[in-house]
Automatic annotation (TrEMBL):
Family: Belongs to the AHA1 family.
UniProt cross-references to Pfam families, sorted A to Z: AHSA1 (PF08327)
Organism, as annotated: Tsukamurella pulmonis
Domain of life: Bacteria
Record protein name field: Activator of Hsp90 ATPase homolog 1-like protein
Domain Activator of Hsp90 ATPase homologue 1/2-like C-terminal intervals: 13-119
Record-linked InterPro entries: ASHA1/2-like_C, START-like_dom_sf
Length: 154
């Protein structure tokens, strides 16, 4: 069976509402990126993500040092529960990779599940060019840890 998704789960001593609110701010994505790929928020990107269909842009650096821009198309916006988006090259349609963050309340905190799902990618050239997932589980975990540190600092 072919693997087409990667999920990293982390328990956090923070309520879902606080975690979700932080992720609705694109600047937080750049500030907490554990992959080293996000350079910042694109000009014109809203300060806050507010719903499905919204696009927030990020400035990126590829593994080979090439700089590029990404438009993230919000696909799921369930306050305090789940936020998901499909990245795409600036001005291009998404290829089918979806990033999602899910927040499940647990006894004294929240179970965070970050998933990269590439099961809908049909572009053979994309699949031949990139090894998926493009961000390792360790780098996703570093992103979650950085988000939790940012929240702890207030």
């Amino acid at each position: 069976m072919t693997v087409t998704a990667q999920t990293v789960t982390v328990f956090a001593d923070a309520p879902p509402a606080v975690l979700f609110e932080a992720l609705t701010r694109p600047a937080v994505h750049a500030a907490t990126d554990g992959s080293g790929m996000l350079r910042g928020v694109s000009e014109g990107t809203p300060d806050t993500i507010t719903g499905v269909g919204q696009i927030f842009g990020m400035e990126m650096t590829a593994e080979d040092g090439r700089e590029y821009s990404v438009d993230n198309h919000v696909t799921v916006f369930e306050p305090d529960t789940r936020l998901a988006w499909l990245p795409a090259g600036r001005g291009k349609p998404p290829v089918g990779v979806e990033w999602s963050w899910e927040f499940t309340p647990e006894d004294s905190g929240t179970l965070i599940a970050v998933t990269c799902d590439w099961s809908r990618v049909r572009d053979e050239a994309y699949l031949a060019r990139f090894t998926l997932p493009r961000v390792s589980a360790e780098k996703v975990r570093a992103t979650v840890d950085a988000l939790l540190e940012l929240i702890a600092r207030g």
